[in-house]
Amino acid sequence: MQKNTRRTFLKTTAAAAGAFALPSFSIGKPGESANNKINCAVVGAGGMGGYAVSQSLRENLVAIADVDDSRAAKAYKRSKGAKGFKDFRVMLDKLDKEIDCVLISTPDHTHFAAAMEAMQRGKHVFIQKPLAHNIWQVRTLRKAAHKYGVQTQMGNQGHTFDGMYRIKEWVDAGIVGDVKEVITWTNRPCAPWFIAPKKFPIPHEDAPKNVDWNLWQGPVKHRSFSREFVPTKWRSWWDYGCGALGDIGCHTFDAPFYVLGLGMPNKVTVEREEPPGPGFIPMKSVVTYHFPKRGDKPAVKMKWIEAGYEVPKPKRWDQSKPMPSKGGMYMEGSKNTLYHEGMRPTRPVITPDERMKEVMPEINKIAKTEKLGPGPIEELFRAIKGEIKKPGSNFDYAVPLTEVVLLGALAQRTGETIRWDAKKMKVKGHPELHEMINEPQLNGFEYGKDLWKA
User: Fold this and answer.
1) DSSP label at 234?
2) Strands 124-127 and 179-186, how do they pair?
3) How many CB atoms lie within 10 A of CB 81?
4) CB neighbour class for 358 (10 Å; exposed up to 12, middle 13-18, buried from 19)
5) DSSP 8-state symbol, 237
6) Contact 330, 260 (CB under 8 A)
7) 162-371+401-437 maps to which CATH number?
8) Residue 302: phi, psi to the nearest 5?
9) 6-158+378-394 — its CATH code?
10) What are 309-318's pLDDT values in tens digits?
């Protein structure tokens, strides 16, 4: 029987895939993996990087880049044979021909640099949410994906859930009616990610030997090492994270953004407590987005409510029941209220329970859409192999979703009302905010400016 090599596998799959072409693999070159598997590299192996490592081990994990030896130790132990690096740039230089796909699970401020370094080499990429640290970066990532012709995916797991497709079916079928208001809420900010320092300025110390502190900071202005930043508290600092919105917004906004086709808001307002120390993210706020009409769809007001503020109950709700404390989302429709508990659409329902029973005959008539999943990295691998055309949270989708999140973070950061000119990528009346929309890239991590040339 003829040996089924990676090369013959790709030719067969491409023929079956029909209209869409497969991206290239490092086939027939050093590092070729067995059983037609994808050669993966992981950037950031601690925390959520464990998911990337697990999925890569189902394929062929050839390399890991992590600036913290202690955080990466478990991954190295699991993936014997994978080569280890501190600097993802060195990894890609040395193993360029051996890598098909790069999975990035670093703090927000280094997402962009790692993804650009990979894509410009023709590597498919996965990035944990939020996609990048500022709006210019996310838009540049989309430009790069188009230029280099790679498969892309952001890690908002809920976009692969059955619940996401049920919500879309119900709304598209008219069961919910016209939606003019969306309420989202979260239990963030909370420990261990969001803990306010006891005093400002924060104490600094020498970086431990296991951490390359310069590489950890990467493209941002360097600051002295502090335990107030690592390993988990970086989300609380504007230099490195995007706050609770950056942590959870891409999950909780996903269903309304996708199903209602919200597009860009023209105004974002914020209610917050007095901002704490310099550079530190406000610990509690309410952000309100104003989305204009889209064709025959009405304008929508969407609220993001953080822990410490009361969540208004839906009009159609058992008023004796409290609102779930861990977070959720509901859409107030002209016919029904659609709701899901938690940050992702795990189990959407029409509320209250009695109304759900009444609409079940109508729901049962709707054909169930097959999800792409079962998870964001698995979905990316299917796209790379040509089993599906592209992942659901590819950069064409993930970029505007993340931009909405980052606009809310900009309002939180400044305390200003953001009147957004999406076409010009500017806040009307506030030219001083441009440096937050397009932050300087420093320390040899400069990417993407050529993609904006006419």
Assistant:
1) G
2) unpaired
3) 8
4) exposed
5) B
6) no
7) 3.30.360.10
8) -120, 130
9) 3.40.50.720
10) 999 999 999 8
